[in-house]
């Protein structure tokens, strides 16, 4: 499912322009059907073995098989009505082979023995055909087989088991609260994902994983008919690798004392909707920003997306090497910069880690989609570029003899390739709260929530907006601003990082819809940080007249 | 078998309806076959094929809807899916905006160019041969190629208990190519999307991308600011699609669109753009055929969206149309913007000072109130002086609204078929010369 399909489904997108496009998210099923426990592991192993043997019999030197059952549930409401309750299931098998030194892939949703074998033969035939125009054979980093193993997202409450009525009741209460507080329109959504993934390879791994994600969100709009102006305030939630427990509020997970309530590992959707309803009106009256240089204080609900775009993507090794040149682009973090061991990506405060295991994160899994056990490593250490993110057929290029476990496919029907692990900015080591940080700022803007985002294909020049902007003068928040966007260059921006709050303020943000590859695939990934200060960043004013 | 004929699809869908006991029942049935090759660093990186079908059964009792899907089509599987959708409908919350299913509709026959069987049935060898031509261009020009070729054949059908039936087959081939100089100093791009693989010239497109790559090396920095620009169709479409894709009646009526007016009401019928702007959609135009029925089961007909700069029509969902007492109008499909006879070269020749933009990238909304978008130039940006391309320039970030842009129109060229690098939708768009296009900063990206 692509970002735009999600916008369509929630009625926030292109409206009728998208009506001729059926969202590519799998086919609808019932809520109850989504609860049945999936396919028995023994059956999956038998089907996988058919594919492995069929590919081997045609000359494949390596084969992996992914059997996927992908469940999604959307509950969409607007104002006082339920707009959409959708359950989808997508089930099938993807077979990837190496033959004559080249990759081939075929996928099928027919899971009888003949169809599986035919898909395996097709994958080998494609590999052999493409080997004709291959310039160098694929080199796979060695990977031991793990035998029969399993992994499951450590959830407390399975969202698919919560009755639809409970979700509808929650969302209608959210809408009512926002509208009582001043919103004219609101769309609210609970989006659940369960990926039941089975991986088998000729290395001897049979890996069964059960992955859960949740994203509660809303878009609340306030209109001023007199001026014809409108403003939207989106939810400050984050999509998470968690169960339904994420939407059960807990006081200890609230960060109080800031201009709006902020949330750690539990989200109070009703409370946030009430605040959003009132803030829509405040945004309409807010002062239009004077463009120029400001010190920025970025809340994790804003900074996650800047980390994603300006650190996550450029440190993907496949982009560095040129594999994404035709779509997502390449990277300014070229191999010579890494090899020098001195490339000054950011200030000394900047420590960025890749972590595929982080609890509650969207990217957390036990094993990646080519059977590699997941881990954690440094990308930027004390401001210096020290590593990338990679997979089995590219690890040798940076002198690694094992993959870092960053392989992922968004469906059984798409071939797996390098995708971003959770990439996070480490919290500061010196005790510092956001309030204390603001006290030291003379002329600044405190930004909460994410909004518009755009960055070039090598990840130098970016522009980001937010949900809420507060003007800071001489250590105090003096009011709300509007029409704000920050524009910078990645290396300059991260070198202007002058302070990071401590671990108490650390929170995760993330995306369900990180797009990459052709045909485009999405992946879900989290980015953690604490509130962070950047000095002297360029602010533009985005107001126009039409 | 993933492509069902009209008769085969009709028979299966009739069978499904025969099991229905709901107030209303609707069957959507579709399938596709296809394959792709992706290459980079002058070599194949991934490739594959996929084939799938699915039948979606929607049963309704009053305003309560239940939906089930299946991909096994024996009688027993179909009947149990129909029963299941009925059980679910009984349990579903009522949707006040639910619209009763449509009765029989008159759909025009699609353009015969909508479907080419050979394009759906391309073999791995055919795909590899087309890519080999592209790789040869890279080799000859000492360039690095990264590209993507994808073909697909598909069918789509819809039938309901009120007597509606719709069916079509479509085919598609998509190709895009980026050529880069080996030192990474230059980059060029070309892309196309067609229904018939015979229209796809991977060699020519690779040569165009190669030429842009070589020509864009050694770019000079110009100060950001307002410039006269010539937007090639691939650059223009990514901004225009946000204009014609945003002609939604409901959001305009609700006061949350660039088409909403101060004090209430919408800008429907008002002149919003330069009078040379004419945009319409026509599913039967052989230059860009699309389906003659919409996802809601409504006929897709030729319709004018913007005429002489005036907002002529908005699209209405069936629910919103009923509420407003107007005819439902599906959104644009097969969009055509009229132009003139001037070639891109003619537009360049008539430009004293300006910038040729061949591609725009990473387009995101900044302010829905003014339809302000941001993004960057990419893969070949050139400075024009006295009617000639003088030198390549470094890429810019822009902040611009298609509404403002189409009021600053200088000239339109001859429309050509292009495909959006953002939405992957095709359109027929002229190259456009625009004055005072706002570049707000420089990018070092190549």
TrEMBL record, chain A:
Keyword presence, Glycoprotein: no
CC annotations in GO: cytosol
Residues of the Metalloprotease TldD/E N-terminal domain: 64-127
GO MF annotation list: metallopeptidase activity
All residue ranges annotated as the Metalloprotease TldD/E C-terminal domain in the record: 291-539
Keywords linked to the UniProt accession: Hydrolase, Metalloprotease, Protease
GO BP annotations listed: proteolysis
Entry keyword Hydrolase: yes
PANTHER family documented for this protein: CONSERVED PROTEIN, UNCHARACTERIZED PROTEIN TLDD AND PMBA
The family this protein is said to belong to: Belongs to the peptidase U62 family.
The protein, known as: TldD/PmbA family protein
Lineage of producing organism: Bacteria, Pseudomonadati, Bacteroidota, Sphingobacteriia, Sphingobacteriales
UniProtKB/TrEMBL annotation, chain B:
A single GO molecular function term of this UniProt record: metallopeptidase activity
Location of the Metalloprotease TldD/E C-terminal domain: 224-440
UniProt xrefs under Gene3D superfamilies: PmbA/TldD superfamily
GO BP terms: proteolysis
Residues of the Metalloprotease TldD/E central domain: 155-214
InterPro entries found in the cross-reference section: Metalloprtase-TldD/E_C (IPR045569), Metalloprtase-TldD/E_cen_dom (IPR045570), TldD/PmbA_N (IPR035068), TldD/PmbA_sf (IPR036059)
Protein name: TldD/PmbA family protein
Source species: Mucilaginibacter straminoryzae
